[in-house]
Design a protein that fits this description.
Layout: H1 6-9, E1 14-17, E2 24-26, E3 44-46, H2 78-95, H3 100-121, H4 124-151, H5 159-165, E4 208-216, E5 226-228, E6 231-235, E7 240-245, E8 250-256, E9 267-269, E10 272-277, E11 280-285, E12 291-296, E13 306-308, E14 311-316, E15 320-325, E16 331-336, E17 346-347, E18 351-355, E19 360-365, E20 371-376, E21 386-388, E22 391-396, E23 400-405, E24 411-415, E25 424-426, E26 429-433, E27 438-443, E28 447-455, E29 465-467, E30 470-475, E31 478-483, E32 489-494, E33 504-506, E34 509-513, E35 518-525
Antiparallel strand pairs: 1-2, 1-3, 4-35, 5-6, 6-7, 7-8, 9-10, 10-11, 11-12, 13-14, 14-15, 15-16, 17-18, 18-19, 19-20, 21-22, 22-23, 23-24, 25-26, 26-27, 27-28, 29-30, 30-31, 31-32, 33-34, 34-35
């Protein structure tokens, strides 16, 4: 058998085929390389080497431009521009406030709609499919939204909307009350005045309390309203300031505070509303709901502004007290405290008083912004300080109340009741809502023992307010009125949800916010007897 290697055989030009097995063998071999048979007589056959041509790359069918994956519509994108314009045009209605951002979005939306209509007109197919319908819808929407934006908010009373957000009171005409109420009184700031003594002008409601209406904000309501000239001004958890008409229980206007929740009470002065929200203090025109100025500050938190003699005093939660010009918003001075601030600045003739969660109480000169004294208490201050007759009354978180001398900051007395509710002061007595669920009447000069105490059975006692000879306060879901001299219960009314603001009593009405997000208006009806509940008395006299 030939020993010719197969790799040399592959290079041979001529070959022989074995007559026995048919195998192809080199022509110079004598025997078949497979079966060993003689191939001497086998004919020689010339062999032409096969030409190997590299196979060209073939594009798969699914990647071809003829494939469905690469089919695209080259018609102009006019309809997309129109719908983008519609979204931009709708921004002013979502913000509910005329601002540079909303007006800019409206103008950009108009330009996008015009460009989109022009592009659809350049292509018959696009115009046939959607361009015409989209263009018509865009023009109609543009007209409606533009008219509403230029006209401003509609303050007319819509009966269906009123039924949705306002719970009607009993028929006042049939019950003997006049359907026309007058709104002459005002409570322009938290606790009734810059001294925060907790006195409201009233008068108190007469007869049996019932819910005249309620306004639903949709979320927890922590902002005690400022009541002025028939309007309630308060902030909401979703970052709006609302001016609510007290006659219709419908908003006159709303102002967008950039989405930060409002936990403080607004203050009213000289036709302007001052409110802290997020990292700013805002001054808002009370009639039109437009911004006068804003001042950038550290986080506003729960501290409400106090306004007096052309100066806005406001404390950030992050330990800074500011004095701002009420007309321009320019900073007059600032003072850095120790600890977080929850209460509102309280004013005496010469001082601004503020407390912190570390128990530090500061008396700062209104004129210079320098601290005149500092008192360190045994517990944190989460309430607003009250000032009267040379004393500063402070409730502490460890359930105690202290009286400090305004001139020196020295402690005059202490009594073991208190919490986070602010005290109310009238003449010779201090009224304290305590975390133990009771309200106490203490002697303003000496403290305890209490002249009387009223147990509520609920530890969520809000700050009490004084209305003439009556003390009004809320504990949990119940509103109480007691005689200021004796603590005797006059009436109690179930709000329906735990109260989250202090009551505001003015023009024979009580306004109070609750955990369910409602601002409640509680009125009285002297003609209804306690057993006339089915005729409209929602809460009998107890």
């Amino acid at each position: 058998m030939s020993s010719t290697p197969r790799h040399l055989f592959r290079r041979s030009i001529s070959q022989k085929h074995c007559p026995v097995c048919g195998a192809a063998c080199p022509s110079d071999n004598l025997f078949c390389i497979d079966c060993g048979a003689s191939i001497v007589k086998a004919p020689r056959v010339n062999r032409t080497p096969a030409k190997t041509t590299p196979q060209q790359f073939q594009v798969p069918t699914y990647l071809s431009r003829d494939s469905a994956l690469f089919q695209y519509d080259d018609t102009p994108m006019g309809t997309g521009l129109v719908w983008l314009g519609l979204i931009l045009i709708a921004i002013p209605t979502m913000t509910r406030n005329i601002s540079p951002i909303s007006v800019g979005a409206w103008i950009a939306g108009l330009a996008a709609v015009v460009a989109g209509i022009a592009r659809t007109r350049s292509d018959g197919q696009a115009l046939l499919r959607a361009g015409l319908a989209t263009g018509v819808a865009a023009v109609i929407s543009l007209g409606v939204i533009g008219q509403g934006l230029l006209r401003g908010p509609d303050t007319s009373l819509d009966q269906e909307q009123l039924a949705a957000v306002v719970t009607e009171s009993p028929d006042e005409t049939e019950s003997g009350m006049s359907p026309a109420r007058t709104f002459d009184g005002s409570v322009p700031t938290l606790r009734g005045s810059a001294a925060h003594v907790g006195e409201n002008p009233g008068p108190l409601l007469e007869g049996n309390p019932y819910r005249a209406w309620r306004y639903d904000t949709g979320q927890l309501l922590n902002s005690t309203p400022a009541i002025v000239e028939g309007s309630a001004y308060f902030g909401t958890r979703d970052g709006y300031l609302i001016a609510l008409d007290l006659l219709t229980a419908m908003p006159r206007w709303t102002f967008d505070l950039s989405g930060y929740p409002v936990s403080s009470a607004p203050a009213y002065s000289n036709r302007t509303i001052y409110v802290g929200s997020g990292y700013h203090v805002y001054a808002i025109d009370a009639e039109r709901g437009t911004e006068r100025w804003q001042f950038e500050m550290s986080y506003a938190g729960e501290s409400s502004p106090t306004v007096a003699e052309g100066v806005v005093y406001v404390a950030s939660k992050e330990h800074v007290l500011y004095a701002l010009d009420a007309e321009t918003g320019e900073k007059i001075w600032s003072y850095r405290t120790d600890g977080l601030i929850y209460g509102s600045p309280t004013l005496s003739d010469e001082l601004v008083l503020i407390g912190t969660d570390e128990g530090h109480i500061f008396a700062i000169s209104r004129q210079t912004g320098f601290a005149l004294w500092k008192h360190t208490a045994a517990s944190g201050v989460y309430s607003t300080i009250s000032v009267d007759d040379g004393l500063a009354l402070v409730t502490l978180f460890d359930q105690s109340v202290i009286a400090l001398d305004l001139r020196t900051g020295a402690q005059v007395w202490e009594f073991p009741v208190g919490g986070s509710a602010s005290p109310a002061i009238r003449s010779s007595h201090v009224y304290v809502g305590s975390a133990d669920g009771a309200v106490y009447a203490l002697d303003a000069k000496e403290g305890g023992p209490p002249a009387w105490l009223f147990p509520t059975g609920n530890g969520q006692v809000q700050s009490p307010v004084i209305v003439g000879e009556t003390l009004v306060f809320a504990a949990g879901p119940t509103l109480y009125a007691v005689e200021r001299a004796t603590g005797e219960l006059l009436w109690q009314y179930p709000i329906g949800s735990p109260a989250t603001t202090e009551p505001v009593v003015v023009d024979g009405m009580i306004y109070i916010g609750a955990e369910d997000g409602n601002l409640y208006a509680i009125a009285g009806d002297a003609s209804l007897l306690p057993d006339d509940e089915e005729n409209g008395a929602r809460s009998p006299k107890f």
